[in-house]
Amino acid sequence: MSVTNSLISSLRSSSLLGTKVVTPRSVVLSRRLLSTSYVPATKAALPSRANNVVPKTPAYEIVSSFYTAINSNDLSSARDLIAQDCVYEDLIFSSPFVGRTAILEFFGKFIDATSTDMQFVIDDISKEDSSAVGVSWHLEWKGKNFPFSKSCSFYRLEVIDGKKQIVYVRDCVEPAIKPGESVIAAVKGVAWLLRKFPQIADRF
């Protein structure tokens, strides 16, 4: 009986085979310490937000810089502003220019054909949105308005690898031929055809 009491007393007071017996309060404290000790490791494992920081340069400034680069025949600067898979849709062409290389080749041909005497002049540009920009512009030849060059463009931008770049452009250029009210007659005729043959719409 005395041996049993001695064993119980020893378990309560200190240790058995070097293992300390803890009270419920000690267990709670140990769990808290264990939890706290893992906090630094958890924070260290989290991905850095530095790579996800949105660049502070406003979208409209990037678009303005693009026009400046083209006006200066500085295609290397324009390259940095265009995404690798950017789509440039000029509505006077039957299909868009897809990819940075194709877009720069197009502007290179434009510059070769006109020289820096031809300049893009921004009439108005939207500044409120951080990822979409609207621009109204025209062309000037040695400071004088170039005919049939009034245009509107839409730009979409995204942050790619920490840089805000142009990913989509649509240009709507003033037509050289102005059909006027005959357009209404043409639209009316097309609408009549669609009502009679709705399957035609699938070919558009």
From TrEMBL:
<dbReference type="InterPro" id="IPR032710">
    <property type="entry name" value="NTF2-like_dom_sf"/>
</dbReference>
<protein>
    <recommendedName>
        <fullName>Nuclear transport factor 2 domain-containing protein</fullName>
    </recommendedName>
</protein>
<dbReference type="Pfam" id="PF02136">
    <property type="entry name" value="NTF2"/>
</dbReference>
<dbReference type="InterPro" id="IPR002075">
    <property type="entry name" value="NTF2_dom"/>
</dbReference>
<feature type="domain" description="Nuclear transport factor 2">
    <location>
        <begin position="61"/>
        <end position="165"/>
    </location>
</feature>
